[in-house]
Amino acid sequence: MAIDNFIPEIWAAGVTQSFIANQVVIPTLNTQFTGAVTRGNQVHVINATTPTIVDYAAAGRSITAEALSDTEVLLNINQEKAFSVNIDDVDAVQASSEFGPWVDSAGRALAEDAENYLVDLMVTGATNANTGSVVVDTAAEAKTAIRDIRKLMANAKVPAAGRYVVVNPDMSDLLIQGLDDVSVAGDDAELRNGVIGRLYGFTVIESPLLESAGTPAAVGYHQNMVGFVNQIQSLESLRNPTKFSDIVRGLSVYGAKILKADAVYKYVSA
Known about the structure:
Number of domains: 2
Number of helices: 5
Strand content: 25-35%
CATH class of the largest domain: Alpha Beta
CATH architecture of the largest domain: 2-Layer Sandwich
Number of strands: 11
Structural class: alpha+beta
Strand order of the largest sheet: 4-11-8-5-7-6
């Protein structure tokens, strides 16, 4: 029979816990749509228009209702990522029912895969803030880059609360001396591994998955304007027909979408 101590619900909970614990960018995004998630699903996100504000007194205390319109954004759940590990009978006996390392490594691998997808999606869909092809190689230039992103977001009327900027290690190395103490960056425990401080109204987080060929890079965004949904869809154990071992495999499905284009900006050194 397959692993005696394999209980799908417990393993799934462990993989999910590890998946969450190893996230850096995902906790800063809009995850409110994570609910009934299955392969091939679409999440319909409604972006409502802003109503017109009128001077009620000047209009003789009379007001006419206007017809509101909205735009729909489709968030496709089109990423299906799986893992399959072979656990030798000898290893299983020696583990003595302690399969924590396997569970943790599966969750960590899924988290890195999802975060890598997210960062690539944001870089691809972001508006370029470095229109002058500026080379960033000093702390002052790094701060100017973040300030340029802030200006574009402010002009686009992106809400001040909930702004984040993810930077790669090359950019964070230049910024680190000028950041406020991390203790003022927020209170979500999930963010602590990635948060390096506050700057110009942004919570600054670092991710090595933001790659740019060894040059400083940053992506600024609002937490509500990038959506992400995911679910550990399946987890099972079965006997390997050709070896004295068990196979444990799992399937995670997820999707992401920039919900408002003028709320995401990138600055990559030339």
